[in-house]
Amino acid sequence: FKQCSQLLKEDGLALIQAITISDRLYSRARYEVDFIKKYIFPGSCIPSIGAICEAVAKDSDFDVVDMDDIGFHYALTLRDWRQRFQARRGAVLDLGFDERFLRMWEYYLTYCEAGFRERQIRDFQILFAKPFNRRAPLHWDAVTAATLVEPKC
Prior knowledge:
With 153 residues, the protein is of the alpha+beta class. Helix content is 52%, strand content 16%. The longest helix is centred in the last third of the chain and has 19 residues, at 99-117. It is elongated, with a radius of gyration of 19 Å.
């Protein structure tokens, strides 16, 4: 966040998308090695919104100006990816991958879909603004989209 803040103009915006875990589970998740950390994203860390906000406050001059939880939509995306992956099992095997690989990725996609559906993990898009930013937040509904003029970035 410090580097992002330093690189932006004083009226800049930064948008991040982060898969998060609840604040109450964050401390345990930080040190625990689960399936995801062992097989999919070794050495990864899943932050909480609290941890992100703490880091932002400590290391930047950003303010949070908008936040959207797209976790339920991401669950549907994972379901679709899993279905497409399963439909192409033969093609994946033809590429030289084995049944173990197939089972691991099917498990990963199912595991994450369930996590998002149960809100054990979330997917946030967070919009940060520098101190001199005065632009109105963007909300992409039909009315806004129909009346939007070219943005001045």
